[in-house]
Amino acid sequence: MTEMVYGAAPVKAGEPVLPKWWRTVDKWSLSCILVLFGIGLLLGLAASPPLAERNGLDPFHYVQRQVFFGGLALLAMFLTSLASPTLVRRLAVVGFLGAFVALALLPFLGTDFGKGAVRWYSLGFASVQPSEFLKPTFVIVTAWMMAASLEIGGPPGRLWSFALAIAIVLMLALQPDFGQACLVLFGWGVMYFVAGAPMLLLIGMAGAVVFAGTLAYENSEHFARRIDGFLSPEVDPNTQLGFATNAIQEGGFFGVGVGEGQVKWSLPDAHTDFIIAVAAEEYGLILVICIILLYAAIVIRSLTRLMRERDPFIRLAGTGLACMFGVQAMINMGVAVRLLPAKGMTLPFVSYGGSSLIAGGLAVGMLLAFTRTRPQGEIGDILRGRIR
């Protein structure tokens, strides 16, 4: 009867888990993610040997670590995508509590590794950045609160989610990590908009962000230095932005050739924050466009599938994850071409990094879990039924 009413596909009784996963998962998005990871390994082979040489390590030390952490990320993505939305929500709540506590303790137990911002925990053999794990779990928890507020007699979930977002943004700003703070606020704003926020409130929030940015510029030397560098009409050729800009210009359409790039010898973060500069120099605009199209395909495919979703929690959480994923990629590439101030943000699945890779795998796994086709009526079925 349910199938007759909602037009849903029947569930195959006793269908094994893996065949069911393969039948329902978004194969196009999954393929794009795997291609991005492959491109990341290819660029890591070009970008990381100079850094390894400077540190007295094996030439492919960082590539080997990227393969290891990338394997863990893909495993986390696969296992998470197998889970039901309810299980994803429960695990995310537990993960969020742990990441939130870890973020709160950073000023006391964290380290800055000489970069001027206390963002990591040093474990000796590796480092952990709590904010990377906080982002996807925050999206899930926030979506849960907002979805609950849409129910009749539900709690004030949107107000609670706003208070939570402000608390996290303040903790990130104190590190300081304004890039991640903006990303968290953006993710919350997108979900709030989808949940039905009034435009006047969103405009007021935009004004508050501008006001907060002005205060940060006047009171934070770290923030002011990055803004001044971005607004300066001339780029210092000896800065990271200067090296990256020159590399992109040298690359042209087809690049200078595999292994022939020079920016990797000058940039300390060539394998992380400025990996797109290595891609542009050695492989040219062609590869950069391919990378952009891969990210766009993942976001558009995910949002298209989520538009047909009836469950408000799944719709909100998936939208937040997809938009945050795409905007992080946009920010990383925008910094490299001076469209945005320097943020210190990795390129998902392409840049080197343990925390960012594993957290990215969890986030995309959640997104794949939410965008799987399920035996339920889609929102369009209800609308068509009302029209009839």
Structure, described:
With 388 residues, the chain is mostly helical. It has one domain (15-374). It contains 15 helices and 2 strands. The protein has helices spanning 2-6, 17-24, 27-54, 61-82, 85-109, 130-149, 157-173, 178-194, 199-219, 221-231, 240-251, 275-306, 312-336, 354-371, 379-387, and strands at 121-122, 127-128. A two-stranded antiparallel sheet has the order 1-2. Strand 1 and strand 2 form a beta hairpin. Helix 6 (130-149) packs antiparallel against helix 7 (157-173), helix 7 (157-173) packs antiparallel against helix 8 (178-194) and helix 13 (312-336) packs antiparallel against helix 14. The relative contact order is 0.16. Residues 1-11 have low confidence and may be disordered.
Topology:
Blueprint: H1 2-6, H2 17-24, H3 27-54, H4 61-82, H5 85-109, E1 121-122, E2 127-128, H6 130-149, H7 157-173, H8 178-194, H9 199-219, H10 221-231, H11 240-251, H12 275-306, H13 312-336, H14 354-371, H15 379-387
Antiparallel strand pairs: 1-2
Helix pairs in contact: 3-4, 3-12, 4-14, 5-6, 6-7, 6-8, 6-13, 6-14, 7-8, 8-13, 9-10, 11-12, 12-13, 13-14
Q: What is the molecular shape?
A: globular
Domain tally:
1
**Strand order of the biggest β-sheet:** 1-2
Radius of gyration: 22 Å
Please mark out the parts with pLDDT under 50 across 5 or more consecutive residues, or reply none. Answer: 1-11
What share of residues are in beta strands? Answer: under 5%
Order of helices and strands: HHHHHEEHHHHHHHHHH
The end-to-end distance, rounded to whole angstroms, is 19 Å
Helix content range of the residues, please? Answer: 55-70%
Structural class: mainly alpha
Count of DSSP-assigned helices: 15
Number of strands: 2
Task: Characterize the main sheet.
Answer: 2 strands, antiparallel
Average residue-wise pLDDT? 86
